[in-house]
Design brief:
Elements: H1 2-14, E1 18-20, E2 26-27, E3 33-34, E4 36-38, H2 47-64, E5 70-74, H3 79-89, E6 93-96, E7 109-110, E8 118-126, H4 130-141, E9 145-154, H5 158-167, E10 171-176, H6 177-186, H7 195-203
Parallel strand pairs: 5-6, 5-8, 8-9, 9-10
Antiparallel strand pairs: 1-4, 2-3, 6-7
């Protein structure tokens, strides 16, 4: 997994799916200030990176969850990635909305599945884990058995690790924050003297630069 982690991190940096700016920070929708912005939807525009991601996902799922029956994507960022993984593995695909529809069938889980279906969830990015675990709960509420979740990237926040542990969900990621910043320094995306800033942010992102 170490080589996959570095390779994926390198791809994300090269196509600017991950942008680093310790001096001129970004503001997330949550209001948090951050020296990093990650938008993995960008990867869909690059065929080689897109393929690298879905093949890596399929490899992990085949090795860890050979009993998986269905692949589920978390809306909206992981729908395309999940569908590509399902196609690669020849499995059915479903996706999970952030909330039930307010009209029609009022579904939160979209697609065909059966009670007790063994599901692996695809996610594009994990920050605190809130929205990711909301999808897991929706699947469990629909009667599915969630085997685990695989994501492209995680910031590795302690609160996310705690949330996944409490929910009893195993999370595997293709790459992560520590691998990425080490590679970013090695390859000159940021200067070595900015590394401490990047590490400090990860410790308490909610209060950084406030």
């Amino acid at each position: 997994m170490k080589n996959i982690s570095r390779d994926i991190a390198q791809s994300l940096l090269q196509i600017k799916a991950i942008k680093l700016s310790p001096a001129n920070f970004f503001t997330w929708a949550s209001g948090w200030h951050s020296p990093i912005y990650c938008d993995n939807r960008t990867t869909l525009s690059y065929p080689e990176v897109r393929k690298q991601i879905y093949e890596s996902f399929a490899e992990i799922i085949t090795a860890k969850y050979p009993e998986a029956e269905i692949i589920a994507g978390v809306a909206t960022g992981a729908i395309a990635h999940g569908a590509l993984v399902a196609e690669k593995m020849g499995k059915p695909f479903i996706y999970v909305r952030s909330a039930p529809k307010t009209h029609g069938m009022t579904n939160q889980v979209e697609g065909v599945y059966h009670l007790g279906a063994k599901v692996v969830v695809i996610e594009d990015l994990v920050s605190t884990g809130g929205s990711s675990l909301n999808a897991v709960e929706a699947l469990r509420g629909a009667g599915c058995e969630v085997l685990g979740m695989v994501a492209i990237f995680t910031y590795g926040f302690p609160t996310a690790e705690e949330n996944f542990a409490k929910a009893g969900v195993t999370l595997d990621t293709l790459s992560n924050y520590n691998t990425m910043i080490e590679l970013a320094v090695e390859e000159g995306y940021v200067h070595a003297d900015e590394l401490e800033t990047l590490k400090e942010w990860r410790k308490d992102p909610a209060n950084w630069k406030k």
